[in-house]
Design brief:
alpha/beta, 9-stranded mixed β-sheet, 27% strand, binds nicotinamide-adenine-dinucleotide
């Protein structure tokens, strides 16, 4: 089998995760990488055994690639993503789809126009236990979802600026917004609140983001969902989970580092464990879709991720105004 030639744009934190996942696949060649910080691109290229660029346009012009991974900060997703799609490359674009709905719309439009395979990196879509959860809940009514995303994370300059990264609400909380939509269905209205205690940072560190945020979602099904996100100090233990309460089931989906589904359904205990990591599963499924030329085969398509961004934007508006925001007002 011919190896699929892949490029990576943005060689920071998440690109290292992609290199680990891609490096374990003999059918993949990471041919070229790019970062505007040339020394970072060179160091990454040395580890990947690939060519280094500091301009992604030059990379696209010179390399004969089949797929591109875009791992830049959210404000810098649109241009490389749209250009890769215009050239017909399969695109794995890191989440969130973009920082703004305008950029997201341009990416969705480019994907539709090209017909190329495009996956957005909301890897919890690829948690294999979601299939088990769906079959357990198939004949029940889900009433409450409680998402927790509490723990330390790396402090990157764009993450500390609300306008650049959307803070904990978008950068971290949108994983749970996406997961709640995948499990509980679409969102009708959003409320949000933020705490003003600095949990993770010393007071001298720059930035304007909130360390703790809570988001309440009214789903179109009538169910309620609450997501709590907190950025804690290095070394603190993390809690990443989704609790689901339905008419005959009370279940907990643990997320990271192990993926389990436990609790009780119809009077019977539930205890299931995922056998693959969703990050690797999401990447492998993207590569399979790229080989088969099937845009519908990815776990999270751009139009889907754009709806998740709409929910995050509604939550940002709710935070700013203190009002309840209807999703249809931002869509
Ligand atoms: N799926 C996940 O769980 C997950 C986890 C972390 C981050 N992410 C997402 O991945 C993306 C990157 O996050 P990160 O943590 O790796 O950030 P990072 O700051 O560690 O890395 C981003 C890199 O992109 C480079 N860059 C910026 N603009 C560029 C451009 N125009 N051309 C080329 N390179 C450019 C920067 O120099 C930097 O090296 C974000 O969208 C983030 O939300 C996803």
């Amino acid at each position: 089998m011919d190896r699929i030639r892949v490029g990576i744009v943005g060689t920071g934190w998440i690109a290292r995760e992609h290199l680990r996942a891609l490096g374990s696949l003999p059918e993949v060649e990471v041919a070229a990488v790019c970062d505007i910080e040339a020394s970072r691109a060179r160091a990454f290229a040395a580890d990947a055994g690939s060519r280094a660029y500091s301009d992604w346009r030059e990379l696209l012009d010179k390399e004969d690639l089949e797929a591109l991974f875009v791992c830049t900060p959210p404000l810098h997703h649109r241009e490389p993503a749209v250009e890769a799609l215009r050239r017909g490359l399969a695109l794995y674009l890191e989440k969130p789809i973009a920082r703004s709905l305008e950029d997201a719309a341009a990416i969705v439009q480019a994907a539709d126009a090209s017909g190329a395979v495009c996956a957005i990196g909301y890897q919890w879509h690829a948690v294999e236990l979601l299939d088990d959860l769906a079959s357990i809940l198939a004949d029940e009514e889900t009433g409450l979802l409680l998402g927790t995303s509490i723990g330390p994370t790396a402090s990157r300059p764009w993450f500390l600026e609300r306008v650049a990264g959307g803070g904990n609400l978008l950068e971290r909380g949108s994983h749970h917004l996406d997961l709640v939509r995948a499990v509980g269905g679409e969102v009708a209205r959003v409320q949000a609140a933020a705490g003003h205690v600095r949990l993770a940072r010393s007071s001298v560190e720059e930035g304007d983001i909130d360390d703790a945020v809570s988001i309440t979602l009214e789903l179109t099904s009538g169910a309620l969902a609450t997501i709590v996100v907190a950025w804690t100090a290095p070394g603190q233990p993390g809690t990443y989970a989704l609790d689901v309460v339905a008419s005959s089931s009370t279940l907990r989906l643990e997320l990271d580092p192990s993926f389990t589904l436990t609790g009780s359904s119809k009077g019977q205990p539930v205890s299931l464990r995922a056998t693959t990591h969703p990050f690797d599963r999401s990447v492998r499924q993207f590569l399979r879709a790229a080989r088969e030329g099937d845009p519908s085969a990815v776990f999270c398509a751009p139009a889907n991720a754009k709806v998740t961004l709409s929910v995050a934007v509604a939550a940002e508006q709710a935070l700013e105004t203190g009002e309840k925001v209807a999703l249809k007002a931002v869509l």
